[in-house]
Amino acid sequence: xxxxxxxxxxxxxxxxxxxxxxxxxxxxxxxxxxxxxxxxxxxxxxxxxxxxxxxxxxxxxxxxxxxxxxxxxxxxxxxxxxxxxxxxxxxxxxxxxxxxxxxxxxxxxxxxxxxxxxxxxxxxxxxxxxxxxxxxxxxxxxxxxxxxxxxxxxxxxxxxxxxxxxxxxxxxxxxxxxxxxxxxxxxxxxxxxxxxxxxxxxxxxxxxxxxxxxxxxxxxxxxxxxxxxxxxxxxxxxxxxxxxxxxxxxxxxxxxxxxxxxxxxxxxxxxxxxxxxxxxxxxxxxxxxxxxxxxxxxxxxxxxxxxxxxxxxxxxxxxxxxxxxxxxxxxxxxxxxxxxxxxxxxxxxxxxxxxxxxxxxxxxxxxxxxxxxxxxxxxxxxxxxxxxxxxxxxxxxxxxxxxxxxxxxxxxxxxxxxxxxxxxxxxxxxxxxxxxxxxxxxxxxxxxxxxxxxxxxxxxxxxxxxxxxxxxxxxxxx
Length: 478
Ligand code: PXG
Fold this sequence. Notes:
The chain has helices at residues 22-32, 40-46, 72-75, 84-96, 109-121, 135-152, 173-178, 182-185, 203-206, 212-230, 256-266, 319-328, 342-357, 360-377, 419-429, 451-474; strands at residues 51-55, 58-61, 66-69, 126-132, 160-164, 195-198, 235-240, 270-274, 298-301, 313-318, 385-391, 394-399, 432-433, 435-437, 440-443. With 478 residues, it is an alpha/beta fold. The radius of gyration is 23 Å and the shape is globular. Mean pLDDT is 95; it is low at 1-6 and 10-16.
């Protein structure tokens, strides 16, 4: 390699521009980089896709191929790529004060401004924020904070946290334990003690023979059964994503969350809403809990708080918990080097400013969200689609082998055929980033999408579904 050549040229005007051939990037990648959630042997044989640039709702790979990013990076680039004012906010803060810690009774300007802003946009029970660097760290914070809360109240036995199968709450030891991903629990001796799981409110999986609303109540009752099994005086909290993201965009029946709230209230259990995906406008509100009529005691956030431009996470701490922590006193022995990082907080402030200035929440709630729902749900007409549903800017559809008028009567593909992955390759091949969770295809696009962008995306998805259909037919799989 020519030593004088820069490793990469970030020139903003040349789509896919890079001074390194793809093969050289892939070689370096497989020689030195261990990717998250990856079969490293398989990837080094295949070679990683290098993404080199982003603008608006698109990203470009090192071959110059443009991809419509239906996943907002990883559920996070809510205001889209290439926002100059965010880069300027980071630059200005780096020049002013790139870092200082919040330990030893110290604070900084961006962190207090952001904390006040977050309190302003949160439901009224929230007046305090604890900052972390990621969603996982924030959920670790939740585990420690709810246990500290019950200790301070003289109830140290109340330490069990109830979560759900197929939930995703991060990849640290506590985050992965709170999550309900069997594959993660199978590695590294998880879950850690004091974390138990109930079923998820996934109608397609477990709602046969019931209406959605009936199933919502039944799946919420699993929480009460678990509380009684563990012992109400041992349960500290229940945690859930308003809509499960990584699990496959699982939209709960309307009856589910109000019943969960009622059960938490009945047993005085803290309710934690993990808003890492649902927060910051994805569902047309600042927080997903606001859509489902619940009043959480703690809310985890990350991703959309900075639109992913820099890492930041945290926990909105409701009055019930904050008052005990503050009034009872004593040191809470928890925190991170980057808690309240001034650059991350400056970026978050500018990101929130953009969400407000461009009225992106109002748009998603009133206009683009309903339009996406209408257009996405119309994909049900496709011969491969057994169910299609959307809420705000999250949507999922199920690929089925044989359609029926009710999803429970559809014939599913055998899971070993990995039909979702076949469909996903057609999407990528045609410039569309759409995820596969089993045979459920999901999107969570940037909130800046207008109707014409939605039309373009839906057309692309429909085309790729057709390609998948033809491919499966040729292969004798349908
Ligand atoms: N909670 C939720 C609800 C999440 O979606 C986390 C916590 C953890 O955040 P960090 O910042 O520690 O990653 C997440 C993250 C996927 C996928 O495959 C989803 C996430 C992360 C990685 C992969 O959809 N969500």
